[in-house]
Structure formats: C-alpha cells, structure tokens
Amino acid sequence: QLQLQESGPGLVKPSETLSLTCTVSGGSISSSSYYWGWIRQPPGKGLEWIGSIYYSGSTYYNPSLKSRVTISVDTSKNQFSLKLSSVTAADTAVYYCASLRDFDWLYSPDYWGQGTLLTVSS
Amino acid sequence: DIQMTQSPSTLSASVGDRVTITCRASQSISSWLAWYQQKAGKAPKLLIYKASSLESGVPSRFSGSGSGTEFTLTISSLQPDDFATYYCQQYNSYPLTFGGGTKVEIK
C-alpha cells in the first residue's frame, strides 16, 4: 500500500514562495498507473485540487492557481514537490499530497498523505 | 470548470439510520465520480470510485449510485464510526473539483 508524507515549513511570509515535498513509500513514483498530486483545504473549508504530475513530468494545474504553481518530480528520490509563489493569507491551508490512480485512463486521488498545515503570516 | 453541489450540507442522524447524500454536477460527468470520508484532523479516505465501485476494505454498508449529473451516496445502517464529513469529487475533466461536503452529525 502506498504511503505519502508531506514535509516543509509550517510558516511562510506573505509574498514569499511556499515549498512542500511529498515522499512516496510502498511503491515507485515511476509507476505508469499513477499521477501524483496536491490538494489543499483551508481551515474549516472544503477541498481544492492544486495540480498533478506524471513521473515523466507531464503536469495539469488548476487554472485558478496556474500562474503561481509549479509541481515537479524527482524519481531518484521517489518524491514530488509543490512550489506556490506570491502567497497571501488566502493560501493558509492544510496541504495534502496524494496518489491519483488510473481509473480507465482518468486519474483520481486514492491514497492521501496526512497533510501539513501551512500558515501565511508575517 | 465543473461545479459539484452536495446536499444537505449537514445531516443529523442516529445509529442504525439509512442515510443518503446527494451530489449534482453542473454538466454530465458520466460515472467519473468519487466519494470520500473525512474525519476531523485527518486526510480524506476514498470510499467509492466510478460512481458505484466500492474501494477495497470499505464496509459494504456504503454504496454509490448515479450517472450523468446526479449521484447519491448511501449508508445503509449508520455506525458510530461513520460520523464524519463526506465529499464527492468529479474526475471527468480538469480541473478536478469537489463538492462542498456533507457533515453527518449525531442526532
């Protein structure tokens, strides 16, 4: 069973760049059956998909965040990463990484990391 | 973007009750719908995929139905462990989008 673990700073200053890493265990990030993604949840609110990446580097981003988001993959470390630039208080949220399983050529989250709270504050 | 609308937003029920949650998509998503359960402070857990397929290890009291734009999640006999928030999510097209959630509370 796949396990995912987010890591990164818990606090970022406004206008700075948020950087998070997800480490995958229990399977290879180079699997052809998975995309890998980031999803966030502001405190007390619902879920928002940020973007996804394939091991080859192919990416999909949420248009609402696309101008500020970069997702990358490091197959040698079995990790993928999120960078979100020019953060504001509205980016304060629990950030989850997830594996996205191939359901008949369409991909959707199955396993999730435990989540990491990222607060934007000076 | 495809908008996902869940109802009700909150549901009060007792152990043993049959519970139904509805999710509507703003356009047809065929059967490309998943349901998740989220408990406080925890990550969402996949319950149902492809509208009606039960994820491995999920109790059979959970079931999903629907296609096109209207979907339901049913819990046949609510158990104490089932009090949580439930989300639907479409994966027919990008961006992936979630419903606003339904919180199932103890009556």
So what's the overall shape of chain A? globular
Globally, the shape of chain B reads globular
Strand content of chain A: over 45%
Query: What Rg of chain A, in angstroms, do the CA atoms define?
Result: 14 Å
* Relative strand content of chain B: over 45%
Termini separation of chain B: 36 Å
Q: What is the helix content of chain A?
A: under 10%
Order of helices and strands of chain B: EEEEEEEEEEE
Query: How many strands, what sense, and barrel or not for the largest sheet of chain A?
Result: 7 strands, mixed
Terminus-to-terminus distance of chain A: 39 Å
List the helices and strands and how they pair.
The complex is a heterodimer of chains A (122) and B (107).
Chain A lengths: L2 E5 L3 E2 L5 E8 L8 E8 L6 E6 L5 E3 L7 E6 L4 E6 L8 E11 L2 E7 L3 E5 L2
Parallel strand pairs in A: 2-11
Antiparallel strand pairs in A: 1-3, 3-8, 4-5, 4-9, 5-6, 7-8, 9-10, 9-11
Chain B lengths: L3 E4 L2 E4 L5 E7 L7 E6 L6 E5 L3 E2 L7 E6 L2 E6 L9 E6 L6 E2 L3 E5 L1
Parallel strand pairs in B: 2-11
Antiparallel strand pairs in B: 1-3, 3-8, 4-5, 4-9, 5-6, 7-8, 9-10, 9-11
